[in-house]
Design a protein that fits this description.
The chain is mainly α. The chain has one domain: Alpha Horseshoe (Leucine-rich Repeat Variant), CATH 1.25.10. The chain is built from 15 helices and 2 strands. Strands 1-2 form a two-stranded antiparallel sheet. Strand 1 and strand 2 form a beta hairpin. Helix 7 runs parallel beside helix 9 and helix 9 runs parallel beside helix 12. The termini are far apart.
Length: 296
């Protein structure tokens, strides 16, 4: 696995679009092998499986259940590698995104940005501790920059989903988002006539997500969470696979995180500075309970 990651990282560190594209496909192929169901088929079918990931004409194998991932030796090895700086995929992807943002806007570069954002989403869900990268202003600013109208709607939509993956169950990242005027950026995009209807719908979904009450994050393996579709907040079925015996350390870390959490009412007041209809959003959340009744 280290050899595969090394090849991918070499390509991702390039300024050549072709090599970057190759590196992204290599990372995608590795993640696919971890997440897709295995079969007792021959090596030929395994190669066919990898091709199906990038060939829209072929139906990919079904996803593994979350409960399966925890017992998968390949996933366990991958997860442990992500805890170290040398093999952390999220770090390489955000650095690749940084280089792509410095290039001129064209169709090929836009596609690479979207592919990079899609992979960042995946790695943040597979390895939640990597979300801590977005507590840094540099990386959070990249996401906010991609919401600007100069970017195409596909990039804006992918960025909103990436932002959710970066913020979920990570209050420290949400504070960075707020400190960088993220709420102003979101609401300004929503109010802009240049913003497409599709992007505005995703922005509304983001605001619903943002208004949810926060829970302290514990940046270790047994606190992983999943986000099916886009915004669902649910306990991870992977948690049991990474049991910690040092519960005292876990509680201490959790207690420290509670200092940076905010309630729905507190975030409602913050958002109200930029959006007059925030009360209606909260009322709708309480009535429709799209997140399992957390506000009821």
């Amino acid at each position: 696995m280290e050899a595969l990651l090394s090849l991918a990282f070499d390509n991702l560190s390039s300024y050549d679009q072709g090599k970057i594209r190759k590196g992204l496909r290599q990372v995608e192929g590795l993640l696919a092998q971890i997440c897709l169901s295995t079969t007792s088929a021959s090596p030929k079918s395994a190669a066919e499986k990898r091709r199906s990931i990038i060939d829209p004409g072929k139906e990919p194998p079904p996803l593994k259940a979350l409960s399966e991932l925890g017992g998968d030796p390949a996933f366990r090895e991958f997860f442990k590698l992500q805890d170290g700086f040398e093999w952390n995929v999220a770090m390489r992807l955000v650095n690749c995104l940084d280089r792509l943002l410095g290039k001129s806007h064209d169709g090929q570069n836009d596609l690479l940005i979207i592919q990079t954002l899609d992979l960042i989403q995946g790695i943040l869900l597979l390895h939640p501790p990597s979300r801590s990268l977005f507590s840094r202003e540099l990386y959070m600013n990249h996401l906010l920059d991609l919401l600007e109208p100069v970017n195409c709607p596909a990039i804006q939509s992918a960025t909103i989903i990436t932002l959710v993956c970066a913020l979920i169950e990570t209050p420290a990242n949400t504070r960075t988002f707020e400190n960088l005027e993220g709420l102003w950026t979101i609401t300004s995009s929503f109010k802009s006539r240049e913003t497409t209807r599709e992007v505005k719908l995703k922005l509304v979904e983001f605001l619903y997500f943002y208004l949810m009450p926060e829970t302290p994050s514990i940046p270790c393996a047994n606190s992983t969470v999943s986000v099916p579709a886009m915004l669902q907040r649910s306990p991870s079925k992977l948690a049991g696979a990474f049991n910690r015996t040092d519960t005292g350390a876990g509680r201490k870390r959790s207690d420290s995180e509670t200092e940076v959490t905010r309630t729905t009412e507190e975030k409602q007041a913050l958002l109200g500075r930029f959006l007059s209809s925030v009360d209606d959003l909260v009322a709708d959340l309480r009535e429709s309970t799209p997140f399992g009744g957390a506000l009821s």
